[in-house]
């Protein structure tokens, strides 16, 4: 066995001596480049984003959802935050699970109109976005909610990266809450009106925006370039299973 190995090594050495020096340099360079590319690919693969962004109008219940996902508690009452809640943690419902579970980086962006630009800080690294809608007081807030959602769906950072969006109808535990089907249709109608009015503006006045929908057809969420789905939840009662499902679809355990 040792003799065969020595013979094999001797043949390799002989082959190397027979090759032009330039050819050996090229072979070594190709090998080095292959190793570098492999390492870079591995790093990119393992560093896939684990950031999920919570957005929506003030009072929609984003911060209570944040606490439910992190602590399994709503931290009773209405919570208004003027600074983003930003945390990396294993979802509370998964704490008892065995094996390695990937933590989620969850960012709750305040809904105050003055603070909406903060959203742009987190979108470039987002694996998904949850747009929270108050299903109880939806009608008075339908127009501003649609405007905010329109702004999100036309952002180049969302469209180019095909960031998945979940429209989350919160507070559905209340009897008078609107259904997700109703909310979806109303948002589509409002966005269709916005699309018509904003498309009339010269493209020179629109920065960093993509056009929504199909020209000449009523707008539907299916027309978006990125995947948009609608779900229900109740941050106060802890019914957040559909939220967790969305998170785990885009931040693998």
From TrEMBL:
Localization per Swiss-Prot or TrEMBL: Endoplasmic reticulum membrane
A UniProt-annotated Pfam family: SRPRB
Keyword entries, A-Z: Endoplasmic reticulum, GTP-binding, Membrane, Nucleotide-binding, Receptor, Transmembrane, Transmembrane helix
Gene3D superfamilies hit by this protein: P-loop containing nucleotide triphosphate hydrolases
Keyword Nucleotide-binding: yes
One of the GO biological process terms: protein targeting to ER
Major localization class: endoplasmic reticulum
Membrane topology, from the record: Single-pass membrane protein
Transmembrane regions: 24-44
GO cellular component, one term: signal recognition particle receptor complex
Molecular-function annotations in GO: GTP binding
Family named by the database record: Belongs to the SRP receptor beta subunit family.
Protein name, per record: Signal recognition particle receptor subunit beta
Native organism: Ananas comosus (Pineapple)
Lineage: Eukaryota, Viridiplantae, Streptophyta, Embryophyta, Tracheophyta
């Amino acid at each position: 066995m040792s003799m065969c190995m020595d013979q094999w090594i001797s043949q390799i050495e002989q082959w190397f001596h027979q090759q032009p020096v330039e050819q050996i340099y090229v072979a070594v360079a190709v090998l080095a480049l292959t190793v570098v590319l492999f390492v870079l690919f591995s790093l990119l693969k393992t560093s896939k984003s684990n950031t999920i962004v919570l957005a929506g109008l003030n009072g929609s219940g984003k911060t209570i959802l944040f606490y439910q996902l992190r602590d399994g508690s709503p931290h009773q009452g209405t919570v208004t935050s003027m600074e983003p809640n930003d945390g990396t943690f294993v979802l509370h419902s998964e704490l008892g699970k065995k094996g390695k579970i990937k933590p989620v980086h969850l960012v709750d962006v305040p809904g105050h109109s003055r603070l909406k630009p903060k959203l742009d800080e987190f979108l470039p690294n987002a694996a998904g976005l949850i747009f929270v809608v108050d299903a109880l007081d939806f009608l008075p807030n339908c127009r501003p909610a649609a405007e905010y959602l329109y702004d999100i769906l036309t952002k180049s950072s969302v469209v180019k990266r095909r960031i998945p969006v979940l429209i989350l109808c919160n507070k559905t535990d209340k009897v008078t809450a609107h259904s997700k089907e109703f909310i979806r249709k109303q948002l589509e109608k409002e966005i269709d009106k916005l699309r018509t009015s904003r498309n009339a503006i010269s493209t020179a006045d629109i920065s960093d925006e993509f056009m929504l929908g199909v020209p000449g057809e009523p707008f539907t969420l299916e027309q978006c370039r990125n995947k948009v789905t609608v779900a229900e939840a109740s941050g106060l009662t802890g019914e957040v299973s559909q939220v967790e499902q969305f998170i785990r679809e885009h931040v693998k355990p």
